[in-house]
Fold this sequence. Notes:
This protein is 33% helix and 23% strand. The protein is α/β, with parallel strands linked by helices. The radius of gyration is 17 Å and the shape is globular.
Amino acid sequence: MSATITCEKLGFTYGRGPVLEAFDATFRPGLTLIKGFSGCGKSTLLKLVAGYLRPTSGRIVLPDGANHGTAFQRRDLGFVFQQLNLLPLASVRRNLALVGAFAGLSRQDTNTRIDKYLALLGLEELADRDPGSLSGGQQQRAAIARALIKEPTVFLLDEPTSGLDDLNCRVIMNLLGTHLPADCICLVATHDQRLNTLPHESLDFNRFLPVERHLVALG
């Protein structure tokens, strides 16, 4: 089996028409930046890799023969959504602990990892606060910490620095650049040019979908 994600002739169609057509790519351990204008298919690709959407055609081969079942999503997948999806009535620490429990981690391992990732993301003093009391940047960092608790095989981030100031962006960049789990395949969908120094590999997604002419002109 291979420690890669392979997309073979991948296609996906919404009601308005195709987003992906015969898309081929192989993603290896490390960080791959998926760049492109809004609407070019970046988020759709992440959701297909995660198994939240099903391809219209083609297939995705996950690392070591995994399939897109609940077990993969609970144990091996970390996903940071644009909407963050933090539980509003649970503290930051509780948000992380619940993910550890669903992934099958022991309480000791969960607590060790909570302390580790809260420290790496500068959230130790905010651990017992609920997400609604945090700034946007703090919430984004909490969502990243929650996804990393599992130390996932596949780590997907959808616009993780969109709308953030430079300081919050640097904290996230430092973590992604130096503290990814071993052999993790990390895909980051973004149009934030501040992240251009990060990737081991980069994929320009604009070439897979026609972009509105006024966006091309501005780009």
